[in-house]
Amino acid sequence: MSTPYPKEPISPLRARMIDDMRVRNFSLATQRGYIRGVKLLAAFLGRSPDIATAEDLRTFQRHLAATGVTPGVQNMTVSGLRFFFRFTVDKPETTRHLVYTYEPQKLPRVLASEEIGRLLAAASEPKDKAMLSVAYGAGLRAMEVVALKVSDIDSKRMLIRVGNGKGGKDRYVMLSPTLLEALRDWYRIARPHTFMFPGRDKIGPMTTRQFHRICQGAAKRAGLPKWVAPHTLRHSFATHLLENDIDVRVIQVLLGHAQLDTTARYTQVATNVIRRVMSPIDRLIPLDAPPADAPPPDDPPPA
């Protein structure tokens, strides 16, 4: 069974926290984030974190802010510490001074269709091209791409089953003919048994870190910005669907979003949609235009 930090010796306190998170079916990413927060606290205090006081935690959060830790990491740390002290050590009052930090909401970065084409063309191997095609062609998250199984591809119904996505939810997305051909090209070469994109051991799935490297390598060869990552393809998928007049509620289902508000943010970057909106100023009657029922003006006197 995998653990957030399988290569490190696990103390009884950390093992207890991991058990508390597993029984609540937390994802590995959440477990890593929560444990990282408790480790940061222990390193700051120089002693076991379970004996920290409320004032210790208040000082620790000030330290995080002063050292330039991003709001996202601060908030993950606060969540992890609240969980640790509430459930693992049963001292919920210890976290009474911890507060969440305001995190500015940035618009997702997307690529133009032509840039997506360049990225896919720059994929050096059929496996790389297939993975990037799945991320863009079906809008999957990186963790969903690497977890894709051969049995998830339903070529008869032209659907992809996304099992155990974010929040443990399953969903279906469309399987386009172009994407199916890319997957078949890879399958004919490797004949994967369980996972569509196996890792180095040929048994388990590839890691998301490896997938990020593949994406960044293709982006570099295609002359695209350094910020291009697998999630950029998911953002581009949603934005391009919106620009092609696909209902935002359908896009919500395809992306597996629990809240429509999460999907609706793509309307802010769907430039084709924005350009088609008619400004109210264009509907105004010019101020110097005569009324519609005004008599025609007299002919000007001859020169």
Mind sketching the topology for me?
Layout (H helix, E strand, L loop, with lengths): L11 H11 L5 H18 L8 H13 L4 H18 L24 H9 L4 H12 L4 H5 L6 E2 L4 E4 L8 E4 L2 H14 L17 H14 L8 H14 L4 H8 L4 H5 L6 H6 L27
Antiparallel strand pairs: 1-2, 2-3
Helix pairs in contact: 2-4, 5-6, 5-9, 6-8, 6-10
Describe the structure.
The chain contains 13 helices and three strands. By secondary structure, it is mainly alpha-helical. A three-stranded antiparallel beta sheet has the order 1-2-3. Helix 5 packs across helix 9. The radius of gyration is 26 Å and the shape is flat.
Please name the defining characteristics of this protein.
single chain; 303 residues; mainly alpha; three-stranded antiparallel beta sheet; flat
Q: What general outline do the C-alpha atoms trace? A: flat
Query: Structural class from helices and strands?
Result: mainly alpha
Whole-number radius of gyration?
A: 26 Å
Report on the biggest sheet. Answer: 3 strands, antiparallel
The percentage helix is 40-55%
Strand content: under 5%
H/E element string? Answer: HHHHHHHEEEHHHHHH
The number of distinct helices, counting runs of at least 4 residues, comes to 13
| Strand adjacency order, main sheet | 1-2-3
| Uncertain parts | none
Mean pLDDT: 89
User: How many extended strands?
Assistant: 3
Amino-to-carboxy terminus distance: 99 Å
